[in-house]
Design brief:
The complex is a heterodimer of chains A (about 800) and B (about 100). Chain A has about 800 residues and is mainly alpha-helical. Chain A has 31 helices and 11 strands. Among the domains of chain A are: about 230 residues, 5 helical Cullin repeat like (Up-down Bundle); about 100 residues, no CATH class; about 150 residues, Ribosomal Protein S5, domain 2, CATH 3.30.230.130; about 80 residues, Orthogonal Bundle (Arc Repressor Mutant, subunit A), CATH 1.10.10.10. With about 100 residues, chain B is of the alpha+beta class. Chain B has a single domain, classed as Potassium Channel Kv1.1, Chain A. In chain B, strand 1 and strand 2 form a beta hairpin. The radius of gyration of chain B is 13 Å and the shape is globular. Classes of the chains: A mainly alpha (about 800), B alpha+beta (about 100). Chain B: Component of the SCF (SKP1-CUL1-F-box protein) E3 ubiquitin ligase complexes.
Chain lengths: ~800, ~100
């Protein structure tokens, strides 16, 4: 609007103004004296309107360019003469000895004082210049409008700022030293920062103002961001000195040898530098100085810090120094998203601690092999004591689990509190846990024992949520166990004992456990376990319907024998754990007394009439029986006790029904009549004739061992304070850690089972793919089976060979080796 | 110190007292009154505009108020400007950076 107007009305205006001011020189003289007055801060008498009108008139005379140049010249002279002299005079010789590193204290103070003086003067000069130029620019506004629009020149303000840079900052201080004012400024500011880093208090606002100046000045007239004097002149030097400083600082801190101090100091330094950038220097430098710190102070030292002997991460972990660990974590996270050294240290410590737990568990278990030997020697005089060491092993297994859980808790807490729930850290911790857990070959068994113990006794008197937490803990460990099939085997064995012997404290907890496992490991895993539960319920129904059946067809004159029966699906239950058969040795079934045999037959009849074509095989080793025994005391009294004994013990005791009071049966006779396997027979006889509180039989000779030639008498003098007496089988029923032989056997069974699983997996994959390269087949098999266990590569190879031999597969290519599926 | 009203004085001696914010519609006057500069106008709050006549300055002040009143609105009615003042008003506008 204004521009258009000017062109149209130029002619009449000139006529209007000529009479008043037509002389350039008059106007300029007026103007220049006023401008000088502005510089000397003597402007209050000046009329803006008058100055403005002067400039306006000059511009209207079309001499704006001349005005521009003259103002520039005036400024240049002013800066060169007055301002520069003033500033340089403030530079003392102390400031000129830059880079003098070895400074004595008082010299330092002197330098600080004179430096501040110099900075003050410079800042004053700069601020004055800014104010004056602001005023001058306002006065010359009309000129600026014309000049910058028509001639593409920078505004007078920008031009004068450039003049300040050239004639003040870049002027040489003294003819003999080749230092510019800017150089002195730079070295002075750096010196101040150095002072602050060493703990002295400096005039921050002053420095901030000088930095403002550098930020406000540019290398070029176009004023690009990147050409700020701050960025081109000061920042590189600042970063350079910072690098040197932090390199030295890092070394110094390391030498103090305390990781916690290092981390504390480093964190403080980071905060300090950040604050410095915000309050003293420019926020622009913050990311850059951060990088310097990260690199010089942290990256290059963090590994050493973490591994510092005695105070490093190991020590922090051991002493739960959460805050220090958090510092370490934060520092590591700054420089490395993977936090390599820290994770390595944490992992190492976990594995160390884990191995210690493993070792102590093994050590506790080692105590045993010696003890059983001497135990066997003194023949079980005190069966209660004999049971104790066995339990000790179980206790050690449970202690192992507890220890591992404790460790896990500890690290979970550290992870949450100090590592800010970092995902990388979590996976590192998980890896380490699974590493040491799997390095203990008994972990599956221990874990299963832990569950067994808790489900039997541990959860009594606990609230639902406590039980829940307990089971969850166990499940967490299960997650780490790689050989889940091994765990399943143990769990099945322990579960079957719990179910059949009614040892489980709560069926709800059992079910809960199964469903938890299902969620964790999958359906396939728990299938058989669930089938076991199903068998139990089916058996309950069966028992009650059999009872009804018996009552209907009952022989009124015969005392009925109550039968409670569990019919188990043989594929689902760990039969091998129940019967003590070894190898292929064919064992004749135990001979039941005729009363029992009758019941047995009647049940078989009943069962087979319901389910045709099934085969029942009786597992006497797992049962119990209640029998009422009558003891004829030598003084003529009669005492009755109800005895709760194992099925075998019942069979043995019933033999004595047919034996006259004073006669005996030898071990061999008993065995011949009952066909109870040696192993079970010995144990049962021990509990009947040797255990001090349950001595229903007398043995001759009276020793702890049971020998084939021993004779057994019915003990009519049996005493007990209770009406009901429970006679446990020596070390028979408790779930305990396996001994060496049992373990070997379990492993062998496990291997067979794994072989079958591998074959199944191979066939499944090949059926689907028809042909597949060896490497791919391997990886697919591994991934399919990894849920249950980690297959051995050699085993897979052998299985593939065997499948080829049996013509399920064929080789179809050699390079790369490829297999085809034979339909 | 800065009072809410300022005085504008025309070349032929007419004085117009208007709110400071209104006067600052003009870039020139705004700078003139800028309190960080120590010009006499800023100190006294009195601006003598020598090359603007009273008639024109009156119209200028009217425009200042009109501008101030309508600055945030759309569909503003036109201001009535007598044709004989057009040229001088345009010159004043250029001078005052309005």
């Amino acid at each position: 609007m204004a521009m258009r107007a000017r062109q149209k009305i130029r002619a009449p205006r000139r006529g209007l103004n000529t009479n008043k001011t037509d002389d350039f020189e008059t106007n300029w003289d007026d103007l220049s004296t006023s401008l000088k007055k502005i510089h000397t801060k003597d402007a209050s008498n000046l009329s803006f309107e008058q100055l403005y009108r002067n400039a306006y008139n000059i511009v209207l005379m079309m001499r704006s360019d001349e005005l521009y140049e003259r103002v520039k010249k005036l400024e240049q002279e002013w800066l060169d003469a007055e301002v520069q002299r003033w500033v340089t005079s403030a530079i003392s010789s102390v400031l000129l000895q830059a880079k003098d590193q070895v400074e004595i204290q008082d010299q330092q103070n002197e330098r600080k004082d004179t430096g501040e003086k110099f900075l003050n003067v410079l800042r004053q000069a700069w601020e004055d210049h800014q104010v004056s130029m602001g005023m001058i620019t306002d006065v010359l506004m009309y000129m600026d409008r014309v000049i910058s629009a028509d001639h593409k020149k920078p505004s007078i303000y920008v031009a004068s700022m450039a003049l300040f840079r050239d004639y003040v900052l870049q002027s040489v201080v003294r003819s003999d030293v080749k230092l510019t004012v800017a150089d002195v400024l730079k070295s002075t500011v750096l010196f101040m920062i150095q002072l602050e880093r060493s703990g002295q208090i400096i005039n921050r606002p002053l420095i901030r103002h000088c930095i403002y100046m550098l930020e406000g000045l540019y290398e070029t007239i176009t004023e690009e961001e990147s050409s700020k004097l701050y960025l081109t002149m000061f920042e590189p030097a600042f970063l350079e000195t910072s690098k040197a400083f932090y390199k030295a600082e890092g070394r110094r801190l390391l030498e103090t040898g305390d990781a916690a101090t290092f981390c504390k100091a480093a964190s403080d330094r980071i905060a300090e530098e950040r604050e410095r950038c915000l309050s003293t220097l420019s926020p622009l430098s913050e990311p850059k100085i951060k990088e310097v710190l990260d690199h010089k102070l942290i990256s290059s030292n963090i590994t050493e810090v973490i591994n510092l002997e005695g105070t490093g991460v190991k020590n922090m972990l051991d002493n739960d120094r959460m805050d220090v660990l958090r510092n370490v974590y934060v520092l590591s996270a700054r420089v490395d998203s993977k936090k390599g050294p820290l994770t390595a240290a944490v992992q190492k410590r976990i594995v160390e601690l884990g191995n210690e737990i493993n070792k102590s568990a093994i050590a506790a278990a080692q105590v045993l092999p010696t003890k059983p030997a001497e135990k066997a020697a003194d023949g079980g005089k005190k069966p209660t004591e004999k049971e104790k060491p066995v339990n000790q092993q179980t206790v050690s297994a449970i202690k192992w689990v507890d220890d591992v859980l404790g460790l896990k808790n500890k690290f979970d807490k550290i992870w949450e509190e100090s590592f800010r729930s970092d995902v990388t850290m979590q996976s590192a911790i998980t890896t380490s846990f699974s590493e040491f857990i799997n390095s203990n070959s008994r972990s599956s068994e221990h874990l299963s024992l832990f569950f067994d113990e808790n489900l039997k006794k541990g959860i009594k008197g606990k609230t639902e949520s406590e039980v829940d937490a307990l089971l969850d803990n166990g499940i967490t460990l299960l997650r780490y166990v790689k050989d889940k099939d091994l765990f399943e085997a143990y769990y099945k064995k322990h579960l079957s004992r719990r179910l059949l012997m009614k040892r489980s404290a709560s069926m709800d907890a059992e079910r809960q456990m199964i469903s938890k496992m299902k969620m964790e490991v999958g359906n396939q895993f728990t299938q058989r376990l669930e089938a076991m539960f199903k068998d139990m319920t089916v058996s309950e129904d069966l028992t009650s319907s059999y009872k009804k059946h018996v009552r209907r067809a009952a022989d009124p004159d015969q005392k009925p024998v109550d039968l409670e029966i569990n019919v188990l699906t043989s594929t689902m239950w760990p039969m091998e754990a129940m019967s003590s058969t070894k190898g292929e040795e064919v064992r004749l079934p135990c001979v039941f007394p005729k009363e029992i045999d009758k019941v047995k037959q009647s049940f078989e009849q009943f069962y087979l009439s319901k389910h045709n074509g099934r085969k029942l095989s009786w597992q006497a080793s797992m049962g119990t029986a209640d029998i009422r025994a009558t003891f004829h005391r030598s003084n003529g009294k009669v005492q009755r006790h109800e005895l709760n004994v194992s099925t075998y013990a019942m069979v043995i005791l019933l033999l004595f029904n047919d034996v006259p009071p004073d006669e005996s049966l030898t071990y061999e006779e008993i065995q011949a009549q009952t066909r109870i396997p040696d192993h079970d027979l010995i144990r049962n006889l021990q509990s009947l004739a040797v255990a001090p509180k349950t001595r229903v039989l007398k043995k001759d000779p009276m020793s702890k061992d049971v020998k084939p030639t021993d004779k057994f008498f019915f003990n009519n003098d049996f005493q007990s304070a209770f009406m009901k007496v429970r006679i446990g089988v020596v070390s028979g029923s408790a779930n305990k850690v396996e001994n060496q032989d049992q373990r070997k056997e379990t492993e062998k069974r496990m291997n067979d089972e794994r072989g079958a699983s591998i074959e199944a997996a191979v066939v499944r994959i090949m059926k689907q793919r028809k042909t597949l390269a060896h490497a791919k087949l391997m990886s697919e098999v591994l991934s399919q089976l990894s849920v249950r266990f980690v297959p051995d590569v050699n085993m897979i190879k052998r299985r593939i060979e065997s499948l080829i031999d049996r013509e399920y597969l064929e080789r179809v290519g050699e390079d790369p080796p490829t297999y085809g599926y034979v339909a | 110190m800065a009072s809410e009203f300022v005085t504008l004085v025309s070349g032929d001696g007419f004085e117009f007292i208007i709110p400071r914010s209104t006067a600052c519609v003009s870039g020139t006057i705004r700078r003139m009154l800028d309190s960080s500069s120590k010009f006499s106008e800023a100190v006294s709050g009195r601006c003598e505009l020598e090359n603007i006549s009273g008639i024109v300055l009156e119209k200028v002040c009217e425009y200042f108020c009109y501008n101030e009143k309508n600055k945030d609105q759309t569909n503003v009615p036109d201001m009535d400007i007598p044709p004989e003042l057009c040229l001088e008003l345009l010159m004043a506008a250029d001078y005052l950076d309005t």
